[in-house]
Design a protein that fits this description.
Length: 70
């Protein structure tokens, strides 16, 4: 089991440390999901997270396939 750890550098009333256990064979899509969960845990709004990470990986995959095809 691997870990992803976020530790805040300065004191605040928000979470000081977030530790997530992840499986060893994590693919990039699962890593993206975990990063989104971490952002939510840090208090970012749903709108901010969706703007930063996107909400539909399949559409980006289609765009990439089309780009590579052309």
């Amino acid at each position: 089991m691997d870990k992803i750890i976020y530790e805040r550098g300065t004191y605040s009333k928000e979470a000081q440390k977030i530790e997530m256990d992840v499986r060893e064979n994590l693919d990039v899509w699962d890593f993206k999901t975990i990063c989104k969960l971490l952002a939510f845990a840090l208090g970012y709004s749903n709108k901010s997270v969706e703007e930063a990470f996107g909400s539909k990986p399949s559409s980006k995959t289609k765009d990439l396939k089309q780009l590579l095809k052309d």
